Structure formats: structure tokens, C-alpha cells
Amino acid sequence: NAPFPAVRIRDEFPVFRHHPDLIYLDNAATTHKPLAVLDAERDFYETANANVHRAAHRLGSAATDAFEGARHRIATHLNAAHADEVIFTRGTTEAINLAANSWGRANLRPGDVILASVLEHHANIVPWQLVAQQTGAVVRPIPLGADGNIDPAAFGALLTAEVRLVALTHCSNATGVLPPLQPMIAAAKAAGARVLIDGAQGIAHAGVDVRALGADFYAFSGHKVYGPTGVGVLWARRELLAHMPPWQGGGEMIDRVSFDGTTFAEPPFRFEAGTPPIAQAVGLAAALDWLDRHDRPALLAHETALRDRFEAGLQSLDGIRILGAGTARGPITALAFDRVHPYDVAQFLDGYGVAVRVGQHCAGPLHQWLGLNGSLRASFAAYNTGADVDAALAALATTLDMLA
Ligand code: PMP
């Protein structure tokens, strides 16, 4: 297989023209956008901007075609059976809130159990806690084993008849740990539970085939997969969506409104109240098209090789621990330091043009389990190169020398 052409691909990202020395290793927070995405959004605004679904004029039809066309292309990328299984949201957070508020409030009863792993981002914990408070259900953590991955035996023991939903990340945003999704989804389904996968960190690397995955819900954000901010997707199977009530009210989501009672539109529109993120949806479809034009296995191999090069270079530095080092991980390296504070390290790295993330990364329970106040995270994407990694390692070595 040909190696991934990261150096050439970097030229497609205008941010590096404005910041030629930027070593951007904060891709798990958000990725930069290729020209294909910027052009698609701009082209939409220039040629087809109007509100969707109701205009009687030609621009309204053009906007609707662009928006619904984006839905179809995203469904194809996900290998969804139907385009109407793709619901546009503001991002992963809103997608999970939609599932929790619509499916959760309709289906959860006192005593029901929601399982969420200790790896989860707050976005896949707090919405379930809120709906649990309203319904009398309880949220229980799926514990981790010593390797920092989910403990399958503990998960098996938690899968009782009361479990209605299992909330799992495709890839930990904090440590990059990849839970054993397939066996966990199969076990959860066999126990009669629904499964929601938080794909915010998964989709950009390994990609996803929602039908092969076998979960009930898959949520992701555009901005972490080379697309725009302000748009994300909740995918769910058609049969499931058909029985889910609306969660936000307004225009677009209704069938007929009267003060005597209102009826609601079919999915996906039932879940898309108000003007949707139209240009952003077009941009997201362009981002997924852009990804589909590349050799995905080569991209993942490239990102993984960058992570491994970074981690190999860390071996010559003292007082650093790689979190979750002994288990399967995506292209993310999270570090704990013995003698220095991660915030200080990140500040110094910024002085060398190296952008990393520091803190708890919205994964409080994981950091409590790790016994850390914070960690430092480097995360890799298509446009990163070996030179980025080497510069980051050199900056880190100098920083540790200065701080120690
Ligand atoms: N889940 C995971 C695993 C994430 O990494 C993030 C973003 N950090 C989110 C959920 C929330 O995504 P957003 O802020 O785009 O809604």
C-alpha cells in the first residue's frame, strides 16, 4: 500500500498558510478544514442559500436539494440503510441529548438501569443522569481493568435484566482507548438493552459502518471529522426512530398545529425543530466525501505510525507515563508527568508552536479513576507529519529540562 500523502494533504488546509509553523496536535478537540469543505459551504451560500423544505421559489428548492443531498451522502458514508435515519443536530452533545430526551423519557421507568463506561466523555454521561432523574432510572458506571480498558467480566456482571441502555464511546477522547465494541454490543443486545455509541472520536480514524456495528444509536460531530462546527448527526435505525417522540418543538417538526392538539412529522423531521444547520450539513457531507476520496486504512496507519513515533521518542524522557499504554488505542497519546504540572508543560509547548490539550478533557470520571487532576494529550490527524512529531518531541525535551 502507498503511504498516506500527509505532506501534500497539508497544502489543502489553509490554516497552515496562515500559521506555517503550527504543530497542531489537538485534533481530538477539533480538526482543521480542507478547502473542499470551505468551498462547499461558501458555494452553498453563494449559489443556493435559502431556507429549506417550505419555500415556493427556486432558491428554496436548491437549498432543500443541497441539504437533503447532504443527508443522503452522509447516510451512504455511514452505510445506513435509509437517509431518513440521519438526524442533523448541533453536534455529538445534542445528538446524545436527543436520544436521552426522546428515547429515554419514553422508555425508561423507575428501577431501569443505564450503563455508561468510565471512559465516557461528559456528553455521554450527563444527559443520561438528567433523564434518569426525571424517570427514576439509575446510571451505573462500567468499570475499567488495570489496562485502562473496559473490564469485560465486570461488564458482563452488570448486564442484568434491568439494563435498558448501554452508553459507550467508540474511542476515548482522553486516552484514545478503544473499547471492545463488537462483543459488548452483542452482549448488550442479547440482554435486551439498547446501545448508543459516541462516535465523536471514532469516525475520523477507523470510520464507521453503522449496520456492521449493530448498535442502535451512533452520534458524532462534524467539526472533529474535518467538517464545520455547529453540525452533527444522530443515526438510529428507522424502526426505533418511528416510535420516538419529539424532544424539541417548533417549526419543521410538525404535521399540523392547532390549539386543540398538534401532530408531528415523520422522522427525521420530527427531530429537527427550527431552521437546521443547512450550510454546515453541506460542509459535513463535503468533509465525509473528502475522507472517502482517501485510502482510509492508509490514513489510519499514518496516524497510528505518528502516535507510535511520538511514544517511541518519549522513551528517552524521564518522569512520563503513557495512559492506557497496554491496550488498544486510536491515534491519541495521553501523558501523566511525575514531577511537573501538565498545564505548565502545555504552556511551554505553545511557546514552541506545539498545540496540545491539557486538563481532564471532559472525562472527569476517567481522571478520578486514574487518580489524576489532569493529563496532557497529543492527538494526530491526516495533515500531521513525522516532522511535527519530531518537533513536538524536541520541544517537550527542552520543556522538561527547564521545568525539572
Ligand atoms: N464525546 C466525545 C468522545 C468527544 O471527544 C466530544 C468532544 N470533545 C464530545 C462527545 C462532544 O462533542 P461536541 O462538543 O462536538 O458536541
TrEMBL record:
Pfam families assigned: Aminotran_5
Highest taxon of the lineage: Bacteria
What enzyme category does the UniProt record give? Answer: transferase
Spell out the CDD domains in the cross-references: SufS_like (cd06453)
Give the cofactors, semicolon-separated. Answer: pyridoxal 5'-phosphate
Q: What are the residue boundaries of the Aminotransferase class V domain, all occurrences included? A: 23-391
Catalytic activity annotation: (sulfur carrier)-H + L-cysteine = (sulfur carrier)-SH + L-alanine
Q: What is its EC number?
A: 2.8.1.7
Cross-referenced InterPro entries: Aminotrans_V_dom, Cys_dSase_SufS, PyrdxlP-dep_Trfase, PyrdxlP-dep_Trfase_major, PyrdxlP-dep_Trfase_small
Q: Which UniProt keywords apply?
A: Pyridoxal phosphate, Transferase
Task: Spell out where the chain crosses the membrane.
Answer: none
Xref: PANTHER family: CYSTEINE DESULFURASE (PTHR43586), CYSTEINE DESULFURASE 1, CHLOROPLASTIC (PTHR43586:SF8)
Q: Of which family is this protein a member?
A: Belongs to the class-V pyridoxal-phosphate-dependent aminotransferase family. Csd subfamily.
Please give the name of this protein.
Answer: cysteine desulfurase
Query: What species is given as this protein's source?
Result: Jeongeupia chitinilytica
